[in-house]
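As agreed, record minuted below.
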Amino acid sequence: MSDDSLEQNVARLLEGTTPHDRGATRPDEAFRARLEARLLAEVAPAPAARAAEARTVVRPGRFRRALSYTALALASAAVIVLALGAPRALRVEASSPHTLTVPTGTRSWIEIGAPGRPPLLRAELRGPAEATWQPAPPVLRVEHGWIRAEANAPLAVRAADVEVALTQGAELELELTRGGTNMAPKWLLPASTAIASGALVGLVVHRGNAEVRSADGSKAAPNGQLVVVDGARGDDRLVDAQRHVAMLERKVSGLRGENERLAAQLADKKGVTVSSVMARLGELKQGSQLAALASPGKLMELETDLKGLGAQGVQAMVDLLKSKDDKDRFLAAKILEDLDSPTAIPALREVALGDTDPLAARMASHALALMESPGTTDALRELVKKKPSWEAEVNAIWGLCRQGDPDGIAQAMTFLKDKEGRSEQMRAALGINLLLLRGEELLPLVDEVVTQWKTAPQTVAFAAEYYKNLGAAGRSRLEALANDPALSEEQRSGVKKLLGR
């Protein structure tokens, strides 16, 4: 008999579905347990190694593959690879530590207990997930992923810096997601959850009593309600935020490079040249300067071809900033904003500070505020200092706030409060646009904008979207808005929806 045939027959025996017995009496549980124990004994660690932590990899596998692990497993840990498709629980010893790993796309059931006794804990894991068992005191620590646990004795389930103390008979569903793993499936937490600062824990107690302990204190978890807790300490959040930012920067850099490569291939196939692009640019100049923005499709196609030309395309637009035609300089500034190349920053700075055409100068300052490329900070600070126009100053302050620049944030607050030196139009132009940004450091600015312009139609809607991502501080402000008699009923209703009322 081949290895594959033997493997299939063994798996069917364990599941009670051998082809010869279909419709007949299934093998009893004791027989299957003895057979499974005999097979697993082939890969069990040596007695000296049993005291070490066991790593249990629970996944659909092949017994032939499991048996090949024997020599490796004897060194320090037991590697158990199950080939069971039915929802039968793997039994592990409660008196020793274990690491339980479930790969992506699989579900597994675990029982933790002493031989011959009811299990202390029965758990279901959905991959990708990993949990570790600590016998004394009894704690199941979720490293990441989703788990559903039924406690037959008092024990704790930990996830990041959140601990859930379960009483006997309690049933808990919990999910832990960390920064950088947001593409993993979500079972409890919203699919759009973005964690830039560490860990987020979602949990529901379906039965029994449970106490949730975190940095914010301890509280009883009500049955049937989703509880979401920030699972990271302050220092953890800083480290994870830095790691998350670095990861995003690598991704953005990679995507940008890939986009440039694809654009270059497309431009090459189309036979795009600088001369052909400049000829099409002339068509966009028909009418006023702002008329070009009314043809976003043509403008986007033009920008794609310029990206395909690489450095040549950027340089063509930098050269166009020196044109005597106001429309040329306006269009060049707009296109360079979207091309987002650091090599264009000096030329845009020069136009923003000294161009004789107000629209071209404002567009250049707008480009510097919106560009993702590093190196715009100094140019924005110079614009704030020299104030070539109030529009350029607003654009520059907004761009610094977008970068989280402390000086820019302080200058924004001064600008918003300067009711004598700044008109309502100037202050509102900055304030309302600040509501589009995100970041806890901007909270005082958002509060100031709400104080001054909360009766404006868009202010409360934008501010509420900002507040809802701030945890307890944001929720208290949402509660205040929901009960503010100065707001319209429509405004209050929108805030209440965000509060889940």
Remarks:
- Residues 28-239 form a domain with the Jelly Rolls fold (CATH 2.60.120.1440).
- The two ends are 65 Å apart (CA to CA).
- The mean pLDDT is 75.
